[in-house]
Specification:
The protein is mainly beta and 340 residues long. It contains 4 helices and 21 strands.
Length: 340
C-alpha cells in the first residue's frame, strides 16, 4: 500500500499547472537579475539585464516536430517527453553550452539529475533513459529576482509507471550576477525524499554513469580535466571542467562543476564520454546502491562556473574555496525539511 504524508498529498492534488507569465525585455526599473516564465512554452528563464543565462524546463516538453522520424528505430524508445532539467545553458558569447534532443542519445537533456537504476517493489526503472519511472512537475515554481541573483525553486514527483509517486524532488537553482571578468556562478541544490519504502538509486551496473549529468553542445578543441584532492587534504577540493570553443561562440570558454564537500560519497567518481561530449561527478560510490528514506532527504549541491577563456587550476581552486565559504553558513537552515 502506498502511503504519503498529508503535506505530500495536498501538494500532489495541487495539480501540474505552472503559472503563465509573459516574458518581457529588460527595462531600467527592474532588478539586474530576473526570473520569468516564458509565454510560449511556459519554461523558466533566468537572465541578467535581459540576456538569458539558462532555462529551467519546469513544464513537460513533448518531442519536437519530425524529431522522432530522424532517430534510429532502435533508439526511439528513449525519445520521450521530459521535464525538470536545464537547457539551454548559455556561454559568454550567448552560445548554447548544452544539448537537448540529440539523435544519438534521445534521452540526454542538457543538465539533468537522474539515475539509470532506480529500484522499487523489486523492479528496476531507468530515470536516466526515461523508462518505467519519470520525473513530473508538481505545483508552481517559485521565482526570485534581485540585483545580485535570480532563483527558481521547483518540485517534481517521480512517478512509477507514470502513475505511482515514489519520490518527492525539490530543485533550487540560483544564478548570480556575472563578475567583472565575465565569469558566472550557478548553484544547484537537489533534494530527494522517498514517499514509499524500498527506493534505491545506483549508477549503471553500479560503476559507470549516474547522478548529475551534463550533455554538451558541439565543442571544438574540447578538453576535459578533473581535480580531486586525496582523502585527508584540507581543504579537499573536487572539481571538473570542459573547455574549448562551443558552436556559436567566437572565443574559448570553460564550464566547470564544483562539488560541495558535504555531499554524500564526496568526492564523486569522475565519468566522461568525450566522443559525445558528456561529463559528470557520479553518485553514489561505485559498487553501491543508495537507499532513499522518508523524512531523510538526500541533498546534493554543486556550483557550475561559466568562464570566458581557458580557466587555470589556481583560479578554480580559489573559486572552490569561495563556494564552500559562501555556503557553509547556510547549510543548517537549507537542510531543514521543506513543508510547502
Amino acid at each position: 500500500m502506498i502511503r504519503c504524508s498529508r503535506v505530500r498529498i495536498a501538494f500532489l492534488l495541487g495539480g501540474l499547472l505552472v503559472v503563465s507569465v509573459i516574458a518581457a525585455d529588460y527595462v531600467g526599473n527592474e532588478t539586474r537579475m530576473t526570473a520569468r516564465i516564458t509565454g510560449g512554452d511556459e519554461q523558466v528563464v533566468l537572465a541578467e539585464l535581459g540576456h538569458p543565462v539558462l532555462q529551467y524546463n519546469a513544464r513537460t516538453f513533448d518531442l519536437p516536430e519530425e524529431y522522432f522520424q530522424n532517430v534510429q528505430e532502435s533508439n526511439r524508445r528513449y525519445a520521450r517527453p521530459r521535464s525538470g532539467y536545464v537547457h539551454p545553458l548559455y556561454g559568454p558569447d550567448d552560445e548554447e553550452l548544452t544539448l537537448d534532443w540529440s539523435l544519438d542519445h534521445p534521452h540526454h537533456r542538457g543538465i539533468y539529475w537522474a539515475w539509470p537504476e532506480v529500484q522499487f517493489a523489486n523492479q528496476m526503472g531507468d530515470l536516466h533513459a526515461l523508462q518505467v519511472v519519470y520525473s513530473r512537475p508538481v505545483g508552481d515554481p517559485k521565482l526570485t529576482s534581485t540585483d545580485d541573483f535570480a532563483r527558481v525553486k521547483a518540485h517534481n514527483l517521480w512517478l512509477w509507471e507514470d502513475e505511482t509517486p515514489i519520490v518527492f524532488e525539490s530543485v533550487t537553482i540560483t544564478v548570480y550576477a556575472a563578475a567583472a571578468n565575465g565569469s558566472r556562478s550557478i548553484d544547484f541544490e537537489l533534494r530527494f525524499e522517498a514517499l514509499v519504502d524500498g527506493v534505491t538509486l545506483a549508477r549503471r551496473d553500479t560503476d559507470t554513469y549516474g547522478g548529475l549529468n551534463t550533455r554538451l553542445a558541439p565543442v571544438k578543441n574540447i578538453e576535459f580535466k578533473r581535480h580531486a584532492d586525496p582523502d585527508g587534504a584540507k581543504p579537499q577540493r573536487a572539481w571538473s571542467l570542459a573547455r574549448g570553443t562551443w558552436q556559436g561562440g567566437s572565443n574559448a570558454a570553460t564550464l566547470a562543476i564544483l562539488e560541495h564537500p558535504q555531499n554524500r560519497d564526496y568526492p564523486g567518481d569522475w565519468i566522461t564520454y568525450e566522443y559525445l561530449p558528456w561529463f559528470q561527478p557520479a553518485f553514489p560510490k561505485a559498487g553501491t546502491r543508495h537507499a532513499l528514506h522518508r523524512d531523510q532527504p538526500l541533498v546534493l549541491r554543486y556550483r557550475f562556473l561559466v568562464i570566458p577563456g581557458q580557466a587555470n587550476d589556481e583560479s578554480l581552486n580559489k573559486a572552490f574555496d569561495a563556494y564552500v565559504q559562501s555556503t557553509l553558513s547556510k547549510l543548517e537552515s537549507n537542510s531543514e525539511r521543506e513543508v510547502e
